[in-house]
Batch of 2 targets.
Target 1
Amino acid sequence: MKLYYKSSRGADGEFAASQAIIRGIAEDGGLFVPNALPELKMDFSELKYKSYGETAYEVMSLFLDDFEEEELKNCIANAYDDKFDTEEIAPLVMLDDGVSVLELFHGPTLAFKDMALSILPRFMQMAKKKNNIEEDIVILTATSGDTGKAALEGFAGIDGVEIIVFFPEKGVSPVQKLQMVTQEGENTHVAGIRGNFDDAQTGVKMIFGDKEYAKKLKSKGYRLSSANSINIGRLIPQTVYYFYAYGQLLKKGIVQNGDLVDFVVPTGNFGNILAGYYAKRMGLPVGHLVCASNENKVLSDFFESGNYDKNRLLTKTQSPSMDILVSSNLERLLYEISGNNEEPVSEWMKSLDEKGFYNVDAFLSGLKEDFEAGWINDSDGRRCIADVYRKYGYLMDTHTAVAYGVNERRTNGSKRHSVILSTASPYKFPKSVLSSIEKKYEDWEEIDLMEVMEEFVEGEIPTGVKDIRNRKVLHEHVCGKDGMKEAVDEFLSGRDLK
Ligand SMILES: *Cc1c(COP(=O)(O)O)cnc(C)c1O
């Protein structure tokens, strides 16, 4: 059967993968979902001999069936190359026989967003060509920190694409801000917003929804698109590392082919863990997917009660990439559990929009066959970082610590091996990490602590942040939340169309 993508809320239209990637989001506000999840027909014991790139081809070719073999292989080769600081791309580190850590932070920006954002720009370039789109594509992104830098890095130097990132000027860490404002590349544009992340996000959504503005851009030869995790082109590459991890476990002799493995995922927008669910449905021997939350535990409450309720205050935690109350990608899971039925999905989303909550009672027991969930607070997280460092000599970041802590608390007595997904390098959050081990570092400057961290981990400071304080600031634009459209105009006015 031919694979196509459609809206999770039922809008008309069947789209090839390349079209769904260009569009980003469906016309009715729904997310693009595959009409059926493909099955990976393969003897999984072969996975242990496959490189990351080879695994990526096996898995992604099932989803991107309007890409030629050559095209997809090109995208993969250009994405997973020496931008990553290890040939393994996503190494699996054993803590003990029962627990391993899948490191997803070896890309250029030290966060798991690189796993998808290093290849999405290649998909877009290819998709643009395939669909004869002549306009230049303008990627607009609002970021709370990690996505912005990964998108800038991924799209820098890509022909026919401009990338514009808005970040809350006072709402990101010093390292994150430096990473963005020092970004090189003629087609990269960065603006600080006088406001918070929600203001930036709302501003971007308003620009996307403004039909007049889209017309104006079109007359100038531009077309808007999105690199946020609602783009199906970000989800597909994330299914790959679940298969790759399984191959590594087989290779190390930790599991036998067919043994079930649990994956524990520090979750925010539900993109990472959803990719794991897709992998399971594609045939990978997965036991439970464990959804790990910080104090913003909307998801962990949801899996317990079947009630999704965002009516609560957002708490700022030491795992900021998980400080989220509306997890957009959950909509894709709802579509799957309701048996590809867009009616209940539309109703749930309407209820979320109008009342801030929805209830999936009838489907809760089904969900529990695939998912577990839990949460920990910041002080538990700090204890986990210190414990793991003392016990295994392994330094993990604050997001990874949430997954570790939740895994430790699981009470189901599962004998399955657990893979903890590590979503950021400890170098990204040096102060929270080091002060968990030694209190004195609480008073240090974040940037200075990067050098101190070198003493705690094997190997040098990753090139992604090395010398970051000496890099030249190239982006100084700051605007009010009402000035975002003008900023876009200004950024584009200086560009020659190709
Ligand atoms: C984005 C991010 C997450 C959350 O991932 P989702 O796919 O949004 O659930 C977790 N940790 C880090 C470090 C991230 O950057």
Note: The longest strand covers residues 161-168.
Target 2
Amino acid sequence: MAAAKDPWLLTPGPLTTSAATKEAMLHDWGSRDAQFIETNARVLRRLLDIAGAAETHVCVPLQGSGTFTVEAALGTLIPPRDGKKDGKALVLINGAYGKRIARILDYAGRSHISLETPEDTPPDLNDLEAALKSDTAITHVVAVYCETTSGILNPIEDIARITAENQRRLIIDAMSAFGALPFDASAIAFDGMMASSNKCLEGVPGMGLAILRRAALEQCQGNAHALSLDLYDQWTAMEKNGQWRFTPPTHVINAFDKALDQFDAEGGAEGRHARYAGNCKILVDGMRGLGFETLLADEVQAPIIVTFKMPADEKFDFQVFYDALGCRGYVIYPGKLTVAPSFRIGCIGQLGASEMQGALKAITDVMKEMGVESGKS
Ligand SMILES: *Cc1c(COP(=O)(O)O)cnc(C)c1O
């Protein structure tokens, strides 16, 4: 686990990473270095395998945080409405990341509409079907797998089935899901899926990855609205010489390769899901024992991040709570809900049962210090 002096990050990212992953960065590599090019190719291959997509899709990486890859994938896959290819997206929104997708499409000048449900409610599948039937201009559906705003699990297989039955293309923001929640290209038809080196794959932050259906990407030349965000150009350039177009995040990729060794050793996405589900259960049971209430019903809670409602007790001061937990070595996260005051505690990263129990003990102590008897909202 991490060096003792680092705090435990119970957040949606950046996350706690293992010592082996961090140690993989203690070198320098040139971008044309044969060993680096080989490591890069291996990482991309491994990511395709994790998605069960090696036969049908390609993996295109991009420098930056996850949002850069979301923005790049949307701009590359969805053509502008210019009388030639005429793209139009339907965005399923139930949180801040869905809203960000709509904002990205606004910036890029892509035609789009949205279907929005409250932050504790998955998208309505009947509404999705009805929208696809009534608006024949829609070419793409864009969905968020785990909406990290609340931690809600959206029904991605059903969304994929309805999208495919209606002959539309699916783009999935699986940033906080890929590597822990089930994802298999043979069960989910999609043109694009975006994730990052950090989050459930437990690499260090700094690059995103898009898994793109090869036959779809081949049609995407000239779609992108920005050179640095053009995944068609990034793909074709990397196919030619194995190199990134612009300065590659060499340390991130070497750390990612090491993180994927640990991912394999843990039993892949199933093993990782089991550890995160264990973390989530310890957290939710323990917090409920202290009176706290979760935003979500257990059936729609993904074992990624949990939203708790703010306690009603006037003696509870979130900033004091946050700072006191930080002093004890546990970093939590403020809420991002529009509906109710809340805070979030993550279950992902290089954390296990003892860290979750340690966090609960710290929370118990801090509540006592504040004179708060119950976390009830
Ligand atoms: C983390 C995350 C992103 C990307 O966020 P960055 O801060 O840009 O890395 C996108 N979508 C979802 C659902 C996420 O959880």
Note: The chain is about 40% helix and 15% strand.
